[in-house]
TrEMBL record:
Name of the protein in question: NtaA/DmoA family FMN-dependent monooxygenase
Residues holding FMN: T94, Y148, S219
Residue ranges occupied by any Luciferase-like domain in the UniProt entry: 27-392
NCBIfam families recorded: FMN_nitrolo
Species: Cryptosporangium phraense
EC number(s) given by UniProt: 1.14.-.-
Assigned keywords, A-Z: Flavoprotein, FMN, Monooxygenase, Oxidoreductase
Length: 445
């Protein structure tokens, strides 16, 4: 059976894929930028628009640096505003479970689902670092080992609030001015290790029942959390072999939770560069990578591995001949790069071997080893690549991350999408009105 491709648009914010210095780059905070990308995605009949969240500006060596200088405005504010200028496009955002409360978040998502007529989606994330926690009253109180236990209870508590309304409890008697119906409507009581709350939820059942739940963890615990609770999972595995392994793994975990294979949508994030020909696209991609990794950015990336000040090094010269400092990061705050390199000395030696093999400078090594475009080619080539990966069960679709904001999705919408539609693997019109319908998911009960 031929699968339908799912596509979503990621508003990237300022990060290592965004080329903010390009003349075509626009604002990352003005509302017109969000409107442009969202309306382009809706014109192309994408499933949803995705907004990431940053709770603190990242620092390196005690200074804010160019990859995160503008930060990100409030997620709910932007999504609620976009609900007024779009009609069918899903509106999803990242909201942290570590520094928020279930009642507050459930109320905001239920409100967004009403305002958008059933298009809300919640990417549930956790945070472990005290650096981000300094912006909040509770600071970095939560140890890394406990973050998923809080997230699980946070999400289950929010679900209790969403489900506290069946949808038909209230009947208004206008003559008496009294609301009649089930006196238990909205009533909740939750006692657990993380939360002890009771009261009455004041937002009636929303069009989807619950917002679509997205999750992005790649650890074994994160995959298990997604299999138990998520409607969609982001993935960083965008190649055929790695994608198929991840797809089989997370889908294989569903049965133990009484869930079907089609109740979890797997969506890797993907960047792309389009050209008139494949060769033209390759040339453009090389230019984009040089823009994404300036000399200053190369130094910053190297510092995240070496965990030491490398400002005295030439980015167009060799890699440092000293070894990384092993232990807690003292350089990079707000990024997990150092923590994710479990053996930084081994990684540094791999980089040195690559530099020696290909005669690469520090900047060229960073370009080689950091994220690159998933799809490079003509519109026909990229359409073929996307469809091949989806039909081979390496994914169910992709969350596209353009390197230019806000117009970076325009060419894809105008050239690649029509080719997918011609193949019969992507919708030509929205068939439903809610995000759950776009993703092939049922009403959440």
């Amino acid at each position: 059976m031929t699968k339908q491709v799912h596509l979503a648009a990621h508003f990237p914010g300022v990060n290592n894929t965004t080329v903010w210095s390009d003349p075509a780059g626009g604002s990352h905070i003005e509302f017109s930028s969000f409107v442009h990308l969202a309306q382009t995605a809706e014109r192309a009949k994408f499933d949803f628009f995705f907004l990431a969240e940053g709770l603190r500006l990242r620092e390196q060596g005690g200074q804010i640096y160019d990859l995160d200088v503008v930060g990100r405005p409030d997620t709910f504010t932007v999504l609620a505003a976009l609900a007024a200028v779009t009609d069918r496009l899903g509106l999803t955002g990242t909201i942290n479970s570590t520094f928020n409360e279930p009642y507050e978040v459930a109320r905001q998502f239920a409100s967004l689902d009403h305002l958008s007529a059933g298009r809300a989606g919640w990417n549930v994330v956790t945070s472990w670092d005290a650096f981000t926690g300094e912006n909040f009253r509770r600071g970095g109180f939560l140890p890394e080992s406990a973050r998923y236990s809080r997230a699980r209870e946070f999400l289950s508590t929010a679900a209790e609030l969403f489900d506290s309304w069946r949808g038909d409890e209230i009947v208004a008697d206008k003559s008496s001015g009294v609301f009649l119906g089930n006196p238990a409507a909205g009533a909740f009581r939750h006692r657990g290790e993380q939360f002890d709350i009771s009261g009455r939820f004041n937002v009636p059942r929303s069009p989807q029942g619950r917002p679509v739940i997205l999750q992005a963890g790649d650890s074994d615990e994160g995959r298990e959390f997604a299999a138990a609770t998520a409607d969609a999972i982001f993935s960083r595995h965008g190649t055929l072999e790695a994608g198929q392994a991840f797809y089989a793994d997370v889908k294989g975990r569903l049965a133990k939770y009484g869930r079907r294979h089609d109740q979890l949508v797997v969506l890797p994030a993907a960047t792309f560069v389009l050209g008139d020909t494949d060769a033209d696209a390759q040339e453009k991609a090389a230019v984009v990578r040089r823009q994404q990794v300036s000399g200053a950015t190369a130094i910053k990336f190297a510092e995240q591995l070496w965990n030491r000040d490398l400002s005295g090094y030439d980015p167009d010269g060799p890699l440092p001949d000293v070894d990384p400092i092993v232990g807690e990061s003292t350089i990079s705050k707000g990024r997990a790069s150092v923590r994710m390199n479990r053996d930084p000395i081994a990684v540094a030696n791999q980089w040195r071997a690559l530099a020696a093999e290909k005669n690469l400078s520090m900047r060229e090594v960073i370009i080689e080893v950091t994220g690159r475009q998933n799809f490079i080619g003509s519109a026909a080539t990229i359409a073929e690549q996307i469809n091949t990966l989806v039909q081979a069960d390496a994914s169910d679709g992709f969350i596209l991350v353009p390197h230019i904001t806000p117009g970076g999705l325009d060419e894809f919408a105008d050239t690649v999408v029509p080719l997918l539609q011609e193949r019969g693997v992507f919708r030509t019109e929205y068939e439903g009105t809610t995000l759950r319908e776009h993703l092939g998911l049922g009403f959440s009960r």
